[in-house]
Design brief:
The chain is of the alpha+beta class and 173 residues long. It contains four helices and four strands; from the N terminus they run ααββββαα. The mean pLDDT is 88.
Length: 173
């Protein structure tokens, strides 16, 4: 009975994890596009002047912190190196002297789908879903153990025939 109750309780979570994991695996092996290889072109022209204070850069101030995924600062001694920015909607480069966006590449539909599936699979940014899938995953060892116990009990309860012969050696089958 425990095996049936746990399997019913974890069915939806395990299906979600299985489907999203299958999609991510297919994307990893190139069976479906994931859009992760598209990167913005490195800017050809950078101002190269004195760096502007980061708090005054309009391109960075326009980014909502909830959407920011990564911000790579330029090397201090190189005025030609821009800031690299990655957000939920795209990626690009920002000039450290002017604070203007130099290049911006919005994410493709394939990348947005892949990131949504990754978010559903990992629960990153969705604490309630993370708790649900974590509880679901915690039921897997219990399902495995109870399944082995059920198999062993059924195997032991099979009828035993005395002096049973292999089919090749038997007179009558």
């Amino acid at each position: 009975r425990l095996h049936v109750l746990v399997s019913r309780a974890t069915f939806l979570g395990l299906m979600l994890l299985a489907l999203t994991g299958s999609y991510m695996s297919a994307a990893f092996f190139g069976l479906v596009p994931n859009g992760m290889s598209a990167q913005p072109a490195y800017p050809e022209a950078v101002n190269g002047g004195a760096p502007m204070p980061i708090a005054e850069m309009q391109a960075l101030r326009a980014v909502d912190l909830r959407d920011l995924r990564r911000l790579v600062f330029p090397y201090d001694a190189d005025p030609q190196e821009p800031y690299e920015i990655l957000t939920r909607s795209g990626a690009g480069y920002v000039d450290q002297a002017t604070g203007a966006a130099l290049v911006w590449l919005p994410h493709s539909r394939a990348r947005r789908i892949y990131e949504a599936v990754l978010m559903l699979h990992s629960g990153q940014g969705l604490w309630a879903l993370a708790l649900f899938t974590g509880a679901t995953a915690a039921g897997v060892p219990l399902l495995a153990f109870s399944g082995i116990v059920l198999w062993w009990r059924r195997r032991r309860s099979r009828p035993r025939i005395r002096r049973n012969l292999a089919p090749a050696d038997a007179d009558t089958i």
